[in-house]
Write a structure and sequence with these properties.
By secondary structure, the chain is an alpha/beta fold. It is about 30% helix and about 30% strand. Strands 2-1-3-4-5 form a 5-stranded parallel sheet. The protein has a 5-stranded antiparallel sheet with strand order 10-9-8-12-11. Strands 13-14-15 form a 3-stranded antiparallel sheet, with no helix packed on it.
Amino acid sequence: MTNCLIVDDEAPARSLLNQHLSTLNGFRVLASLDNAVDAFTFLQTNPVDLAFLDIQMPKLSGLELIRSIKARPKIILTTAYREYAATAFDLDVIDYLVKPITQERFMRAVSKYLHYQTVPALPSQILSRYEETYMFFKVGRDQIKIFLKDIVFIEGFADYIKVHTNEKAYVASEKLGYMEQKLPEDKFIRIHKSFIIAWDKLISYNADQVNLVNQTLPLGRLYKGVFLRKLQTGTVGLPPFKNNT
């Protein structure tokens, strides 16, 4: 059963989402709230799997609510404004629905959520050694098995990623934020809003970029601090890095 939360300051919008959800098996609305402040409190003590969240609300916006929650549910944004889409997808929401929301468009968003729930999770695939650890990636109609040791870096776009290995690159239906959560932290790190790298493929770096095997990538300002701290503390599956400068 998928536990859902609806948050919208407009009663007709809440009613429509409740109606759409009532046509689906396996979805249960735990609460339907008219403001993000109450939603924040509700999320602290209730197991929500999927939240339908409006953006523009009094006191606290939907985007501010997302940023304020550490252990957040999967989120589908519902709004009358198209201009927030780029910001929203940077926060790794499942989908962005523009009102009025038709049943067909609503079903497409729910299908995306269900896809993320059925993608094989990493823990169940970990074998005895890292060299044998793999994940399946949806490439076209196929599920492609890729060993983590073969990944050099992963490049993120809006609704898909490009997994670069030493041999070739695979375009897969996935989000970079999802990969950041699932990949082992001591083997991979996000260095930019668009890139995750494998630590063991790192050759050198400077203040602005990192150099991998046959590839140079930008080092994002927001990610630089964590990158340097992990190098210096030796929490990346590598010996501690000593900065002699």
